[in-house]
Amino acid sequence: HWEEATPQGEAPARKRVYYLSLEFLIGRLLLDNLGNLGLLEETRQALAELGVDLQRIVALEPDAALGNGGLGRLAACFMESMASLDIPAHGYGIRYEHGLFRQVLTDGWQQEQTETWLDFGNPWEFERPEVSYYIDFGGSVQV
Description:
Elements: E1 17-20, H1 30-36, H2 40-49, H3 54-58, H4 70-84, E2 89-92, E3 102-106, E4 109-113
Parallel strand pairs: 1-2
Antiparallel strand pairs: 3-4
């Protein structure tokens, strides 16, 4: 288990943060992860030797459509800050299959379309199809 391999995992008395947000604007992750691992320049050089520009690959990564405003940006910043400060934290949110929506103009009229950020999967996720939770919403709908 990854948690047991971390220093926080060895100190059960240490407090942890569990952060719940309906949005997480994490942005594109490839450059961030390469930088955090200290592999950015090595990767850039290795790709250059193959005649590939890293920026062209970076431009292909879709932005995770997990929010649209200040709440999502704040949540992402909190999580990044806690990681930088070595504060044990877990972020919980909604993993939107189609994101919020895209707005396009057609003949001067606004139209909403589903966001397609997961068309080609997400390499930063570990699928767990065996884990699901039924969530019951009360109330009724009248048409």
